[in-house]
Amino acid sequence: VWRSTDDGVTWTVSQPAAITDIVGLAISRSGELWCATKSNGVFLSLDSNRSWTKISSPSYPVVDVKAWSGGGACVLLESAPWLEITSDGGKSWMKKGLPDVYALPSAIGIDTTGRLFVGAGVSFGSHGGGGIWSTGDAGSTWTDCNSGLQNFRQWRSLVRGIGFGPGGLVLAGCYGGGLYASTNGLSWDKI
Asked: What is the pLDDT tens value at each position of the chain, 191 positions in all?
């Protein structure tokens, strides 16, 4: 992990040797830095990348991490039917599955209000599972956000990326389905 304090003019390295094969970085609004590594877990820095603490060693390879203020983070795992979520800076972790048991989480994003969006693909051989869900309470309850998404209940539909723009714009990039936009995070139009 590299650090710049002069808008990218100069850079210094600041990471323990254990931080290799980085797959995701996240910065919360309150300044916590999260670093996800594929095979060595999740690390947290509370001092602007000067030091790092290993806080998680998931049983599956890590794919990505997203964070919200106050010590909250969500970790996306490779081929796992759940997400790992913390609300206390990594002291404890909860496994949270999506409402559809055939869904395999494949993309995560957090909007400016702290709402977590999860894109999913369909488990092999199933007839359900694909699409997008959101939660505002760290996965205790989920909202189905699939209105307007086409062909997401069949094999090979997979949400690969979720991004956010001005004015509440939400974008979803889908393997086998194209690009979708939403202004409310609930219903989608194909672009």
From this structure: 777 888 889 988 776 667 888 888 998 888 889 999 888 889 999 988 888 899 987 888 888 899 987 888 899 888 888 899 998 988 999 999 887 766 778 889 999 888 999 988 765 555 556 788 999 888 889 998 988 887 655 545 678 889 999 999 999 988 777 899 999 999 999 99
* Token duo for residue 107: 């993309």
pTM above 0.85, yes or no: no
Take residue 169 and report the two structure tokens written for it: 């714009």
| Side-chain-side CA neighbours of residue 5 (13 Å) | 7
Q: Identify which of 45, 58, 175 has the alpha carbon closest to the alpha carbon of residue 106.
A: 175
Q: How far apart are CA 98 and CA 83, in angstroms?
A: 8
Dihedral sign from CA coordinates of 179, 181, 186, 189? negative
Residue 128 burial by Cβ neighbours in a 10 Å radius (0-12, 13-18, 19+): middle
Q: What is the distance between the alpha carbons of residues 72 and 51, in angstroms, rounded to a whole number?
A: 19
Token output for 4: 């710049």
65: its two tokens: 């991490």
Q: What's the token pair of residue 186?
A: 């609930």
Q: To which residue do tokens 């998404």 refer? A: 149
